[in-house]
Amino acid sequence: MDTQQEFHRIMKDRHLMMIAFGGVIGTGLFVATGENLHNAGALGTLLSYCIGAIIVYTVMLSLGELSSNFPNTSSFGDYAHRFISPSTGYVVTWLYWLTWVAALGGEFTAVGLLMQKWFPSVDVWIWASIFGIIIFALNIWTVKIFAEGEFLFSFIKVAAVIVFLILGGGVILFNLFDLGVSKTFENYYQDGWFPNGASAILMTILAVNFAFSGTEVIGVAVGETKNPQIAMPRAINATLWRLVVFFIGTVFIIATLLPHNDARMATSPFVAVLEKIGIPYAGDIMNFVIIVAIFSVSNSGLYASSRMLWSLGNQKKLPAFFGKVNKRGIPINAVIFSMIGSLSALSSLVFAPEIVFATLIGVSGFTSILTWMSVSLAQYNFRKTCTKEMLQKLPYKTPFMPFTPLIALFLCSASIIGCCFDTTQQIAIISTIIFIAICYAVYFLQNKYQTKKSSEG
């Protein structure tokens, strides 16, 4: 499906690893964690992020096998096409495009809101537009510019998270010696184990999955990476446990030091914790870090969404100009259209930015779950077709088969069921289901027309 003849394989191992970090450490961690903590409480939030970590870990193990054996830019859509069905491959490609278009809209909104801390008189949409132009510029020059930019952005925010873990961990250790175990961890039980009920764990899982979404971008980037059969296994092994430690460790510190009633969407929980510790200019420092993080996530998001459109153009499922790649190895038309799709969300920001932000997070989280499910199912089906000789030649093998993809499918399904009971996420779920139905309808109508045309010819 994807010959890769026009893309330039110039990304290196370090780029691939930082893209894995860059796609995932963004507003879902720096901002939305506060809302999750407010809804689910300390213990509920920690458990929901542990569930999310298990999901992303099992999915990435499956992705490692598929992407190292079939390293191409079409990625998830290609795997679903090969090992589920052509129609599902088509829909998954559009779903992953929607994942990042919705995420980009949310990130653009977030950066506009964050910039108002320093420039309160400037409208959100103006900052969002300026930010979008910068991200667009990074993606239309060369893949090397994109990769180096992502490496720099990711390095800054990874360093910030490490500093936060050291400071927060130090405060918790000090409190243990000074206040004792009971007082140090009182946030976990003082209002009950689950202040809003145990069901809040499942109801927040969509936002948690949004926080973890982006790790899978390396499955797209591997199509433009040197020696993908070697680079992908290294990236999987090097990043997975670090991401789990980063997320679970960060959430543990936030939940321990910040009461759930003090956690709010409008203020980053990182800022609240650092201010509580007594770090001067904590708000300004974290505002800068979060903006850098948004740059990183958006950079990866536009890259991934444009490659999905390119793959549809390459397969003749969209007009051929979407599948064109310029001399610098950039699918410029796909980049432009993906950028337009993400900026379209800005038209609603003038009226209800907070509602739009929450809805976009919901759509991105839900479509991420569906994409992950397609990866797990595709890998499960692929493994069933493998002979012993084929297994021996695989550059990377998913461990704990067949349980790894089955665990991912079960937990993703449970997440979807839990999300259906959250009224704030129902709009996102219903919108995504309608989008899926339209995609399937378009695919079958398109196939019917092409079959009719070829029979007449």
Task: Indicate the topology.
Elements: H1 13-22, H2 27-30, H3 32-69, H4 75-83, H5 86-115, H6 124-140, H7 143-179, H8 181-184, H9 199-203, H10 205-212, H11 218-221, H12 228-257, H13 269-277, H14 282-314, H15 332-343, H16 346-349, H17 353-385, H18 388-393, H19 403-419, H20 423-456
Helix pairs in contact: 1-7, 1-12, 3-10, 3-12, 3-17, 3-19, 4-5, 4-17, 5-6, 5-14, 5-15, 5-17, 5-20, 6-14, 6-15, 7-12, 7-13, 7-14, 10-17, 13-14, 14-15, 17-19, 17-20
Membrane topology: Multi-pass membrane protein
InterPro entries: AA-permease/SLC12A_dom, Amino_acid_permease_CS
Subcellular location: Membrane
Structure in words:
- 75% of the residues lie in helices and 0% in strands.
- The chain has 20 helices and no strands.
- It has 457 residues and is mainly alpha-helical.
- Residues 1-5 have low confidence and may be disordered.
- The protein has helices at 13-22, 27-30, 32-69, 75-83, 86-115, 124-140, 143-179, 181-184, 199-203, 205-212, 218-221, 228-257, 269-277, 282-314, 332-343, 346-349, 353-385, 388-393, 403-419, 423-456.
- It has one domain (13-447): Amino acid/polyamine transporter I (Up-down Bundle), CATH 1.20.1740.
- It is found in: Membrane.
- The chain crosses the membrane at residues 16-34, 40-63, 83-104, 124-143, 155-177, 197-219, 240-258, 285-310, 330-349, 355-378, 399-418, 424-445.
